Input
Amino acid sequence: MKIMVAIKRVVDYAVKIRVKPDKTGVETNNVKMSMNPFCEIALEEALRIREAGLASEVVAVSMGPAQCVDTLRTGLAMGADRGIHVESTTGLNPLNVAKIFTRLVELEKPGLIFLGKQAIDDDCNQTGQMVAGLLRWPQATFASKVVLDKEKQVATVEREVDGGLETLSLDLPAVITTDLRLNQPRYATLPNIMKAKSKVIKKYTPQELNVDIRSDFEVVQVTEPAKRKAGVIVSSVDELIDKLKNEAHAI
Amino acid sequence: ASTLILAEHENGSIKAQTLSAVVAAKSLSEENSVSLLLAGSGRSLKEAAKHAASCHPSVLIADSDKFEYPIAEPWAKLVQMVQQSGGYSHIVSASSSFGKSILPRAAALLDVSPITDVIEISGSSQFVRPIYAGNALCAVRYTGANPCMLSIRSTSFPVPPSSADSKSNEAPISEVDLSTLDEDYLGKTRYVGHTSQDVERPDLGSARIVVTGGRGLKSAENFKMIEKLAEKLGAAVGATRAAVDAGFVPNDLQVGQTGKIVAPELYLAFGVSGAIQHIAGMRDSKVIVAVNKDADAPIFQVADYGLVGDLFEVIPELTEKLPEKK
Output
C-alpha cells in the first residue's frame, strides 16, 4: 500500500508575524519558512506505518512556488520515498489544492492519505475534508491515534472532538487529518539529508493536471488585531487577589 | 437572502453554539429567512426539533439511523441534497469539531470555497476571519457562486438571553426527503465510541479559567502545583510548548499556535516566558495574569496583572489564599 502525504510550506511557527503596511497581507519576504507543523505530524505518521511494515511507499506532495522543493527535501530527509511538486505562482485556496490533490490520487492510487488538520498560515482547516469529499472516501479529521488493520483494510482512528475523544473505524482507502498529539515528528539526520538529495521529485503544473484555478473570494485587507496593552505590576499575592476580585471581577 | 444552518443537538436540545450561528445568520441581511437543518433519529431528534421550532423561523429534519452519530459522509451528502432543493444563498455552521469536519466536505461537493472561523460579518458577502492564529485579521469578500458557506466562532456571536426561549411563533417543521441519500460509499465509516477526557476538569477549549505552566515549573513533579491550583479554581490546565517538549505534561494541554487556541475569562500564566506562538493561543483571553521571576519576560507585555516573583512561593500562597470555586 502506498501512502500520500500533503506538505505545505508556511512561515515558521516561531516567526513574529508582521502585517504589511499597505494591508495587502502578511510579510513573507526574508522570513524563515518551514514545513507546516501539522504536516510534519502527518508525514511522521505515514513513515511510522511504513516502518511497521504496513505500507510500502510514502509519497510527499507540495504545491506552490519553486521554493516548495526545499520543504519537500525536508520531507524526503525525514524519510519520504519520493516527492511531487505542483508548481504554481498564483495562490491556491483549499478547494484548488483539493482538486489538484484528487487528480494526483487518480494517478498514484494510494491506499491512505494523511494531511495536517490545518496550516498555521491561513488556518483554514478545509483541505483534507475536501479531498475526502471529492474522492467520496471516508474521512477522519483531528486524529490523535491511528491503528491500521492491513488484512481487513480498516483504519481505526481516535479523533479529538469538542470535550473528548471519538473513535471511528474507516474502510480503506481513506483520508485522515492529523492533530497535535498524534506523534512527535522526528528530526532529519545529516546522513538522511544527504540521501534526500538524490530522491526523485516529480513536477506538474495545475494545467497539466487539468485543474482550473479559480478564486471564490478576494482579500479586502489584512490588519493587525487590537494590541493588548501591558497592565500593572503588583507587588504581592494579596494585592493580586484583591485586583482580581475587586477590579477585574474575575474570581 | 436565505440561510441554512447546520444544527447540532444533544439530549433533545439545540446546542448553544448553533444558537450563535443563528445570531450570525441574522446579521447577514435584514431580510433573511433562516432554516435550521437537524439530523438524527428517534426521540431525541423530535425533542430537539421542537426546541428549534420554539425559537427559529423554520426547521428541517432528516430522520435516519445514518445520522445517529455525527459522521461526515452522510451529513455532507445531506447538506448537498438540501442545498440542491432549497437553493440557499448562505450555509452557516459553528466552528465546532462537527462544523469543521462537515462544512468543507459539503462545500467540495457543492464546488464552492467555504470561509472558516468568521468573527465579524459586514453585510451578506464581507467577513473578517483571524489568520496566523489571530496574529492578523483578514477581511474577505465572497465573490463565488451560491451558496456562500461560513463557519463562525461562537464566542464572537453571543446569544442574547431572551432569544433562546420565546415560545411564541412556533415554526413549521418539515421532513427532508431522504430517498436519494442511499449511496454505497456512505457506509464505509463506522462509529465506535466516545470518551470524555477528564470529567473532573473543564475542557481547555471552553473553560472559564485556564491555569498554565511553562518551562519555569522545571519538572513534571512541580507541575502538580499548577493542577492543584486549577482544581481549587475549577479551572482547566494548560501548558506551553516548552513545558510539553520538556516532558512535564502530555501535548494535548499545549496552548499556542500549534496547540489549543483559548479565550477564557481569566488566564493565569506561571513560569511562562511569552513566546510568540504561545501568545497567539491565548491573546484573546479577557484577563491575563502572569507570574514570572524574570521581570523582562515578554509575557508581561500582554498581561493585565503581572507579579515578579518565585513561582514556588507564589503558587502555594495563591492556592491557599484564593477562594474555593463557587
